[in-house]
Amino acid sequence: MSVETAAPRITIAEAGKHVGETVSIPGWLYNLRRSGKICFPQLRDGTGVIQCVAVKSNLPEETFEALKNLTQESSLIVTGKLREESRAPGGYELDVEQAHIVQRVPEDDPYPITPKEHGTDFLMDHRHLWIRSRRQHAILRVRAEVIRAIRDYFDSNGFVLVDTPIFTPAACEGTTTLFEVDYFEDQKVYLTQSGQLYNEATAMAFGKTYCFGPTFRAEKSKTRRHLTEFWMVEPEMTYADLDDVKKVAEEMIVFCVRRVLDNRRAELKELDRDVSKLEAIQAPFHRMSYDDAVVKLQAKGSEIQWGGDFGNADETLLTEDLDRPVMVDRFPTGIKAFYFETDPNRPEVALGVDVIAPEGYGEIIGGGQRAHSLDVLLKRLEEHNLPKEAFDWYLDLRKYGAVPHGGFGMGVERFTAWMCGTEHIRETIAFPRMLYRTRP
RNA sequence: UCCUCAGUAGCUCAAUGGUAGAGCAUUCGGCUGUUAACCGAAGGGUUGUAGGUUCGAAUCCUACCUGAGGAGCCA
After folding, report:
1. What would the pLDDT profile of A373-404 be if each residue is shown by its tens digit?
2. Which nt is closest to the CA of A38, judged by C1'?
3. What is the spatial distance, in angstroms and rounded to an integer, between the CA atom of A36 and the C1' atom of B70?
4. Cα–Cα–Cα angle for A50, A142, A14, nearest 5°?
5. Which of A291, A385, A396, A429 pairs with A415 at a CA distance of 20 to 30 A?
6. DSSP A279-308
């Protein structure tokens, strides 16, 4: 059963197509300005905000009084005629003829988030309401666009979506950063930190696959770039080498940036995002070896030595003079996970690649070519002190038709933060999970 | 885990060791074109918690709690 309205029901986003018509719009009171015998309720409905005009002399007494004294975020259905209006924010205005108040927010317990400024702690405590605000609303719409673009890219380029489990029996890579969960019969399982090992199995079955879902990292990282629960897309390709991985990463990023620019212009404007920075994201990206990156960083004053991993400041330094992402490859084997293929000409470097976004957004993609020889993998497990038995099924992939293959993982929130130009990753997911925050 | 900063009205913030303040929000009054409207008035406080110094503490000291920023860690 659908909700009854006095006139044909439309959304605010559709207002332009109904100028001159009498329509009903269900929504919530975003803000209200009034002046004696006229008032301007601003209605939001999730698709936009529209200013309404209620004039005392044109309305029944109780309708005007109800509107004039309405409280912020009260739910209501307004009915009236739409017209273009240059004075109204948004360009269209609705002359109220009827108003049905669905639920009035009581004034002794008013909506806590006013149009004025608030602090981080307060807003995070009210995250369930904060997502109604224009800025948060815009960010989450960009996120949805990013996710849709990612899916479209892989779906239309021969990748098959095969999702991997969230409960996993052991570490994919390291061991210390896993959330442990009680399973039946005193068993322990862990929340996935990457679907990659399973992706390697599915890619051997389908050729090209990807998984896309939540990922969990029990790292005690307290930075503006870390969540304990985040969404990651991970493609995996067979008969592919490091260059193939880099090419797909580059193509996918350009595709997603284009989609955001094409479809979420209004949201980027709401966020005051400098879109020229995003227009500049074109192939080819900058390409650089780890060796050259270390030299460049040292020249810029970094303390980094060959063999060390980049810090946050290093990533920013590396891209500060660049207008598009940089792909850094061939990292020291020692700082990469056990499953990376090594360079046949230089066993001391791994065939991994990080894609580092400009403007200080840091690593958005990590990936590379996987070791595909059984002997190499066995040796590597030993070097990393990992139990061979836990990886028996994974090692099967090297016994039964091993081929060169590779892939990468991209964090959706970091990518969205980059698109939106947000300071902190916590705004790019509806209900962020962080080191010291799991509510609401 | 470490470093730094912060905690005062529902919110954002003021207040030389000496009477607890403003704006917004709420309530009441005014205004027929407002743009985070404006004008007038009212209500609203155990200054994060527990100790200590002092004639006197929001202010100084100690511990703890909470939060923020950063470091480390980080596929």
Report:
1. 999 999 988 888 888 888 899 999 999 999 99
2. B32
3. 52
4. 30
5. A291
6. HT--SSPEEEEHHHHHHHHHHTT----TTP
Q: Locate tokens 């949805």: which residue? A: A144
The H-assigned helical ranges of A264-411 are 265-270, 275-279, 290-299, 312-319, 374-383, 392-399
Per-residue pLDDT at A325:
95
pLDDT, chain A, mean: 92
Closest nucleotide (C1' vs CA) to A174 is B75
> In the prediction, which pLDDT does A176 show?
64
According to DSSP, residue A177 is labeled: T
What is the distance in angstroms measured between the alpha-carbon CA of A34 and the sugar C1' of B32?
10
Summarize the confidence of residues A251-278 as an average pLDDT: 95
Reference A232, options A191, A275, A273, A279; nearest CA is A191
A1-24 per-position pLDDT tens digit = 478 899 999 999 999 999 999 999
Owner of token pair 């500049």: A280
Strand partners, A328: A288, A354
Cα(A28)–Cα(A43) distance, rounded to whole angstroms?
Answer: 6
| Strand nucleotide closest to residue A221 (CA to C1') | B73
**CATH topology for the A127-428 domain:** BirA Bifunctional Protein; domain 2 (3.30.930)
C1' of nucleotide B66: residue with nearest CA: A121
Q: Do residues A92 and A108 lie in contact, with contact meaning Cβ atoms separated by under 8 Å?
A: no
Q: What is the pLDDT of residue A432?
A: 94
Determine the CATH number of domain A12-103: 2.40.50.140
Q: d(Cα A407, Cα A248) in Å, to the nearest integer?
A: 9
Per-position b or e across A236-266, b if 16+ CB within 10 A of its CB: bbbebebebbbebbbebbbbbbebbbeebee
Q: Cα(A359)–Cα(A325) distance, rounded to whole angstroms?
A: 9
Hunting for tokens 């996918």 — which residue is that?
Answer: A252
Q: Which nucleotide is nearest to A95 (CA to C1')?
A: B33
Pure H helices in A8-84: 61-68
* Spacing of A118 CA from B54 C1' in Å: 37
Query: ∠ at Cα A173 (A423, A256), nearest 5°?
Result: 40
Residue A353 to residue A152: CA distance in whole angstroms: 24
Q: Å from A220 (CA) to B62 (C1')?
A: 29
